[in-house]
Protein 1
Amino acid sequence: MDLLQLSDFDLIRVVEDDHDFHIYARLSEETTHCQHCGKYGVVGFGRREQVVKDLPRLGKRSSIYVETRRWRCKNCGKTFYDELPHVDEKRRMTDRLVQWIGEQALRRTNSSVAEEVGVSEGTIRLVFAEYVQQKHDAMCFATPRWLGIDEIHLTKPRCVLTNVEKLTAFDILENRNKQTVANRLSRLDHRKSIELVTIDMWRPYRDAAAAVLPQATVVVDKFHVVRMLNFACETVRKALRADLTPAERRGLVNDRFLILKRRHRLNGKEHMMLSGWLENYPMLAMAYEIKEAGHRIYDAETRDDADAAFEEWRASIPHEMKGAFGDFERAWRNWRDEILAYFDCRATNAYTESLNNLIRTTNRVGRGYSFEALRARVLLSEGPEKKAAARPAFQKMLNRDRDIEMTVHSMRVPTRYEGRYGTLLSTLPEILRDGDFGSDQS
């Protein structure tokens, strides 16, 4: 069996030790033409042995030892060594190893890949950076019809773009400034096809969408609005607890979870406990009822009904609660059109929020990836996305099949991804579960 399986090389012998395969080979054809002038007629003088890293085999590192000759051209007088086919131009690695490192580094840490190959982590980082750039140049995500925009804090805020309709990651930007977001949106192909943009209440997102995507409907995510009601109720609860004695505080064990929970989701025991607290603390009861009334605004059928429900809610707030719920009232006034747009399409940014949680997990288990490495791991992790490309189940080879000649598949050449939507959000947990994440700095 040819352990090397590379055309243009003849296998001589293989030496195996506890950790490595040492594969000795020679070039199949001798050089006859000058690499400089291309003319026939070269004279050989001198030899040297070159060591080239190759794919790991059977859990062991592999290196290819090739003796190359030095040649002098009779015509131009220049000297050169044999060219090594299937070897990367920038480093002593086979092309297939370079490709393999890039694919593995998407799902594993640099340290684990470096240990398996037998090179330094710095080499893995350089190979991975080139692989990512190559993939970016070849990659073309389809412009989403429904675009989600949100941010995630990783040392500093990063802007996250998603295709909410297809539930895929679309891009991660270095910051969330208006100019950065607007520049990225302006580079989208067929950006006029975007119909919906769901955002949180960050003004640069709205301004960027208005400038670049005037045809799109901008919707403020429901979660970010109702969260302000919960925060206001929590503010009242904390102020109340600060004035209680230690014995009285013990009577409010787990009060935060019940007070923030919607009334229709309480079970019998929780409803009984909450009712007792609200009877004993009128201010808390007042804040809770205001919070519940604010949530019910989103039960409205139309935007007009929702706007009327808000005005009724605002008029019902007692003077002593104006301060606590003032942020919600101001947000509705400043973002009225974008908040009411929800009632026309019922669009939320929940999938973008889910992606943010997975990005945080990816960053945490990777022990602080660089922004470029984290972005690549999220956007280019295409293996689990393509279920049809998974290996088929193992089938035992029958006796009559054992004489079938085995063929060597050529390396996969990067192609342009037409119509691809990005990494499916549901596949990211598979990447985290299956990947070998250890201590690493990318």
Note: The radius of gyration is 31 Å.
Protein 2
Amino acid sequence: MQTKSKSSNLETLLELAKKQGAQQAEVIQMSWTENPVNFENNKLKALESNESSGIFARVIKNNKIGSSSTTDPQATEKVIKDAIESSDFGPDATFKFSDKKLENKEVDFNKPDLPLEELVEKGTKAIEYLRTFHKDILISGGFNLGFGETAYLNSNGVHSIRRKTIYSTSLYALLVRGEDFLGIYDGNSSLERFPDEKEMSRKIFEKLTFAQENTNLTTKKYPVIFTPHAVSGIFGYILSVLLNGKVIQQKISPLHDKLNKQLFDKKLTFIEDPQAGTRKAEFDDEGIKTNQKVLIKEGIINNFYFDLSSASKTNNSLFSSTGNGFKPSLGSPSSPSLTSVQIESGKRNSKDIIKNIKEGVIVDQLLGAGQSNTLAGEFSVGIDLGYKILNGNIQGRIKNCMVSGNIFEVLKNVCEISSDREWVGGSELYPYFMFENLTVAGK
């Protein structure tokens, strides 16, 4: 009954948009609830649930686009009026709303229960375990249960609802020794269950052990291994920007004219899979069906990703929306955005790769990853957490070091991609990368 009520409400808003002169209109109703169980500095914090909901409307009137949003449940009709009025000063409409029907599955959705006492106990035990490493260590993090839905309807009769529950677990260990600050983070999300806090605690304890001793590093070229978190922060991030339909449409991405060209190592295959991970979505926020796409295939630029606007302005409309028009927030317009992504795995396990390195570096946590000249493919980042490898063994933590390069150069020669992969943030599935000669600046 609740779903029918929402659909009726959205249909009423569409009718109102038509009466006020809109040739086309779309409305989106979003709701989201979060239930955090947080710990801070070894202690349980106050537990507060957060709820948000609202409606967004976008209209095309006199070939102009107008939009508006509201979180006030009593002002839903006003959102249409404001969208109509804003169209007088809006951008030209270079596209039409989708008329391709979406599959509508009847899916039961019951709000999940928060196992509060169980989570408090799990968090407390994780803190107790990590404090055995050092009495002064401070642990923060916890659990979060989020759930909600997005209902979409447009004037072409395209409609559907997607619902999602996301379980998140995170832990952060901070150890201060004089002027030495050591912070180690691990966290993940899942659509099925809370990620295992025991495994996260074990990984953090292992990293704390590796980082007990600081070691000096001479500036020179080393074999460098990037963990999945570091792969995400540098290579996943930069590739996502360069393949984005908006920068392709504006021709400010170096890849805009490189479709079907071999630019990278044949070991590199970069895929978007909207049916996996926490960003799973059957349709985007413009009512267009999502689909799996191979963005880079064995080093060849194979696909870009678009929303309606960027696709309509690219190469005289040779491209169409790829179902990647998502809203970063309720009041923001849709823009090209990836769902869950992955990089295909290689042949050898990361531990075996490390064992065969005489002298090298592992890069795990980064500082300033988003401050490089991304559109040029450049990266220059501080190593927040990294280790020195000597004769196949991890010898200690490196401090005050930086790693830099250009992906158009380094990704041409990827020495190895590991067979083991890890989820990063629940929406990126990445392996370890190894490069034979990469400059690491040390002090």
Note: Residues 241 and 375 are 7 Å apart (CA to CA).
